[in-house]
């Protein structure tokens, strides 16, 4: 093939758009014109934006040298190719993180590989785990080594990361909450919730970090973080434990409720009214017009849009579930403001087997990922079933959803990796790729939880001898 010496950059970009990364490298040595075009930062910027409309322009647009966009494109496409194929030994490495002497009850990223960084591939991910053995442990995911371990205390029951402060917060069986420094593992502060079971939620607003604590008495305490000073308290479901607690992507709204009573409705709460409470006014909240909620999620690209899975027409059977979508707005009058919840969509869910434990996550502005029993399904918010999968032989216990993939963890001791793709007819859909295995069934009872950053996956394995292990999968960029 002859290459015309006067091809414009626009023509070259159009041609390059059909190339794979290896082809682009080869094209750069064909002749001087191709080489010059292949080294143009503007070309690689256009290639990045064409392939990933969500890539971080602000970071890569800054002064990182002429090769910033090219390096980003080649590294990211190479990494995604590895994550798509998932070949053991070549595409990823697996480390077993051992040290806990009892069940692992929480696992969170303290720091991870993020697409918000131009050199995301060079970061070293760190996770923290908490256990019934009363310890918090920090781990280097890629090296598979323990970084620090907290002193032993009462059995831990939960843990969340405070990303802004770079630490973690734990709850134990006595209701004691503690904040830990992520670098040293030193205790920073504590707070007694007087609740043996706590549901924890961290979020940041206006440069400050907060912790909301759902208690077994039906209240939500809001504390500052990491000082754990109490700011407010709100009764959500009197006498029933608050175990449904999440914040909207913009942190303006909090959903709080219980899965323990099929007749109770969750509440939407203004986070501003509980983090900066008024002495004259009660916190601003509103009940959802549905009861018996078993799962909920906010849509990432529409932070005031909420999806919930709940009972159908006051039916308490496990086979009758409905998904409703609501828009949340503030209505202001001369004298007060109030929350209004408007239902915009509603459709029935159909699953095989018992669906008491439902997992729900959102993607973008109109896609919902739902797992129940052994099934994984993807719906639009209007109720159109996009795709469904039955890759597992035992129930799915945890899912992780991001912009590139979905990872499911199952009691069958496997993780299933699925990647997003755009189909010409169906639009956005999922493609099932491969399994990641967690070990031997003679030694383990299955996975219990999974968390992910962009290039790693960490999952907890419930061990037969009671000494749970973390499996850390690092993909090679």
TrEMBL record:
PANTHER family for the chain: EXPRESSED SEQUENCE C85627-RELATED, F-BOX ONLY PROTEIN 3
InterPro entries for the chain: F-box-like_dom_sf, F-box_dom, F-box_SCF_Substrate_Recog, Quinoprotein_ADH-like_sf, WD40/YVTN_repeat-like_dom_sf, WD40_rpt
GO cellular component labels: cytoplasm
SMART domains, per the entry: WD40
Species the sequence originates in: Coregonus suidteri
Alphabetically ordered keywords of this record: Ubl conjugation pathway
One Pfam family linked to the record: F-box-like
Protein name: F-box domain-containing protein
Pathway field: Protein modification; protein ubiquitination
Domain F-box: 10-50
């Amino acid at each position: 093939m002859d290459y015309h010496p006067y091809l414009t950059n626009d023509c070259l970009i159009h041609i390059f758009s059909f190339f794979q990364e290896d082809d682009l490298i080869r094209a750069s040595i064909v002749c001087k014109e191709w080489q010059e075009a292949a080294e143009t930062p503007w070309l690689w910027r256009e290639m990045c934006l064409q392939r990933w409309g969500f890539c971080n322009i602000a970071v890569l647009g800054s002064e990182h040298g002429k090769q910033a966009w090219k390096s980003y494109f080649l590294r990211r496409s190479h990494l995604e190719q590895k994550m798509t194929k998932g070949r053991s030994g070549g595409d990823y490495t697996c480390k077993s993180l051992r040290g806990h002497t009892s069940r692992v009850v929480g696992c969170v990223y303290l720091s991870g590989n993020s697409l918000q960084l131009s050199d995301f591939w060079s970061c070293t991910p760190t996770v923290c785990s908490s256990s019934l053995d009363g310890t918090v442990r920090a781990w280097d995911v890629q090296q598979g080594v323990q970084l620090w371990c907290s002193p032993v205390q009462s059995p831990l029951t939960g843990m969340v990361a405070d990303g802004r402060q770079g630490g973690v917060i734990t709850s134990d069986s006595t209701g004691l909450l503690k904040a830990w420094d992520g670098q040293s593992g030193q205790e920073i502060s504590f707070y007694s919730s007087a609740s043996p079971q706590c549901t924890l939620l961290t979020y940041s607003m206006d440069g400050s970090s907060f912790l909301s604590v759902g208690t077994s008495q039906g209240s939500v305490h809001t504390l500052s973080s990491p000082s754990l000073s109490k700011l407010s308290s709100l009764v959500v479901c009197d006498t029933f434990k608050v175990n449904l607690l999440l914040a909207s992507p913009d942190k303006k709204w909090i959903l709080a409720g219980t899965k323990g009573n099929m007749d109770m409705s969750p509440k939407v709460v203004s986070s501003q009214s509980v983090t900066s409470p008024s002495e004259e006014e009660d916190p601003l909240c509103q009940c959802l017009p549905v009861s018996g909620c078993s799962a909920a999620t906010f849509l990432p690209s529409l932070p005031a849009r909420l999806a919930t899975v709940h009972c159908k027409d006051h039916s308490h059977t496990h086979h009758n579930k409905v998904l409703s979508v609501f828009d949340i707005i503030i209505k202001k009058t001369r004298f007060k403001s109030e929350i209004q919840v408007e239902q915009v969509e509603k459709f029935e869910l159909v699953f095989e087997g018992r669906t008491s434990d439902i997992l729900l996550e959102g993607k973008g502005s109109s896609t919902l990922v739902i797992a129940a029993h052994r099934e994984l399904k993807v719906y639009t918010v209007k109720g159109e079933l996009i795709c469904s999968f039955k890759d597992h032989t035992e129930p799915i216990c945890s899912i992780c959803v991001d912009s590139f993939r979905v990872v499911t963890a199952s009691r069958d001791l496997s993780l299933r990796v699925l990647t997003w793709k755009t189909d010409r007819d169906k639009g956005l859909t999922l493609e099932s790729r491969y399994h990641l295995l967690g070990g031997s069934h003679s030694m383990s009872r299955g996975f219990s939880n999974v968390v992910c950053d962009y290039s790693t996956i960490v999952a907890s394995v419930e061990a037969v001898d009671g000494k749970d292990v973390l499996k850390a999968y690092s993909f090679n960029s």
